[in-house]
Amino acid sequence: MEETLDIFDRIEHDGALGYIRMRDPDGDTSDLVAMLDDGSVVEINAETKKIEVSFDSWQDTINHIQLVQRKLYDFIGEIAIRAKNHDASKLVDPEKRYFDQYTPLLEFLKYGTKEYRESLFRMTPALSHHYSVNRHHPEFFPGGIDDMNLIDVLEMFADWVSAAKRHKDGDVLRSLEINKARFGICDQLYSILKNTISYE
Q1: Is the peptide bond before 125 cis (omega within 30 degrees of 0)?
Q2: 132 and 191 in contact (C-beta within 8 Å)?
Q3: How far does the chain reach from its first CA to its final CA, in angstroms?
Q4: Are 31 and 6 in contact (CB under 8 A)?
Q5: Is the pLDDT reported for residue 180 higher than 70?
Q6: 132 with 140: CB under 8 angstroms?
Q7: What is the torsional sign of CA 114, 118, 134, 100?
């Protein structure tokens, strides 16, 4: 309220009508309050003679918490779907017959080596199909990782960590370094993934 208030002024505050009164009839005439018709009392600043705006942030904070919770549960729901369907295409042809043949060999090859890449090349028909139907692989997108969303990245990261554990000499940090160069991962995302390895 912009105007300076004085005793007996008629006011409207937040849709409620009322009058200005002295807090104590026998007290200081500058000590005023707004007595609203609904029975509530609104403080008036003794120096400025203006209504003191009092804001209780509790409900606003609760609303924010609930919105965040709903969004997090949305993410959890999508992650649960990804977990359920992860790599399901490997269970049927045209992928399965290639993974039947090469998975035992890959277990003994170091990730990123010439021999490893040669084995992947021989699996091209299966991998081309796999990448085309699974968006947790950068190869799914024209722009690679830059076209991914957070859910894609999270599933990709879980895939990389789990894949490293399938190799006899699996090293998640080494694999991450190789993938940084392979997929053009920026320094910031690389640090986030590396920090998450430590958390994991």
Answers
A1: no
A2: no
A3: 55
A4: no
A5: yes
A6: yes
A7: negative
How many helices, marked H, and strands, marked E, lie in the chain? 7, 4
Q: Residue 50: name the closest of 67, 70, 30 by CA.
A: 30
Distance between CA 174 and CA 145 in Å, rounded?
A: 19
Residue with tokens 């990448």: 131
Q: Which two tokens stand for residue 33?
A: 């309050």
- Residue 156, classed as helix, strand or coil, is helix
Angle at 143 between CA 142 and CA 148, to 5 degrees: 105
pTM: 0.73
SS3 13: strand
pLDDT tens, residue by residue, 124-133: 999 999 999 9
- Is there a contact between 138 and 127 (Cβ–Cβ < 8 Å)? no
Q: What type of residue sits at position 30?
A: S
What Rg do the C-alpha atoms of the chain give, in angstroms? 32
